[in-house]
Amino acid sequence: METVAFAAKNMHFKIRQARKEDCKEVSRMIMELAVYEKMPDQVKISPEELERDGFCQNPFFECLVAEVPEEHKSKEGFTIVGYTLYFYTYSTWKGRSLYLEDLYVMPEFRGNGIGKGLLSKVAEVGKKKQCVRLQLSVLNWNTPTLDFYAAKGAQDLTVSEGWHFIRFDEQNMGNLANEAPKDQ
Amino acid sequence: METVAFAAKNMHFKIRQARKEDCKEVSRMIMELAVYEKMPDQVKISPEELERDGFCQNPFFECLVAEVPEEHKSKEGFTIVGYTLYFYTYSTWKGRSLYLEDLYVMPEFRGNGIGKGLLSKVAEVGKKKQCVRLQLSVLNWNTPTLDFYAAKGAQDLTVSEGWHFIRFDEQNMGNLANEAPKDQ
């Protein structure tokens, strides 16, 4: 994919793969999304880490950005107004899968089909790469987002099958690692 | 890591990276695990797909196996008696993460520290690769497994923060992809 440009409800925008130099803008929007999710103090990532991890030999993620022309820039002067960040996962039942870590459109640009455009471009990547599903996670109080995905055919697996998210944080992962049997 | 060998409760075993030729055995244990999880009809993966996706240029997953010596082989004659399959994910709040897709030890070999050995070796990989967390998902009725991870310091994020798993299956992902704006 190179770029996609189209107009919806009088708002022109294009969707393109993020470049290394977009990481500062992506980083800004990651923080905006975390504020919306009520956990801004959780964000520890820097633009430099995004550059290192997303633009290396075997990148840890891929990223698309949505861009509007200068004349439609945000009140703060931004032209990159949305992003999505995703990566490949693997199901031992079904095979290659895609995981949508983030999908975000700045509030003043919502209602123009940008979120839908980003999501469908990610789905297109998944289809091309022979992935069999697209997964993500949403906070249970975030009804607008849950509704957004449900309306497009997504299933809530925590409700339907009872899957729970389990996490070892860095400290507990480190403790486990320290107990690992030594290599011979 | 090459191999790890040690003895616990009189059972010698070693943990090593899976090789392409182990995929048939891993495939057998994937099915055993799915039977335990009460969803055997969900398994569609073949040993050939595991070979293709795990042993290519940019593999979609990594895998460790636990092996016992011939004299301790299972009643069916198997010496590969456990496995774990994991891959790299990415948090836009924290950075590199590891996701544990499967961890399995054959029933007759449990209680020998093999599960703990596999888990701690994965944590060690995470630490070496500068991952900040190790995540996984568990079915809510699977109390022994939830207890196993909780005892080692894991947190249930569905309970504590309200995260839900959302999935677009292949059909719905395909529908989305078909609606993607065309590249220019």
From TrEMBL, chains A, B:
GO terms for biological process: polyamine metabolic process. Residues 13-178 form the N-acetyltransferase domain. The keyword Transferase applies. Keywords: Acyltransferase, Transferase. GO terms for molecular function: N-acetyltransferase activity. The keyword Transmembrane helix does not apply. Gene3D superfamilies: 3.40.630.30. It comes from the Eukaryota. Belongs to the acetyltransferase family. This is Diamine acetyltransferase 2. It comes from Channa argus. The lineage of its organism: Eukaryota, Metazoa, Chordata, Craniata, Vertebrata.
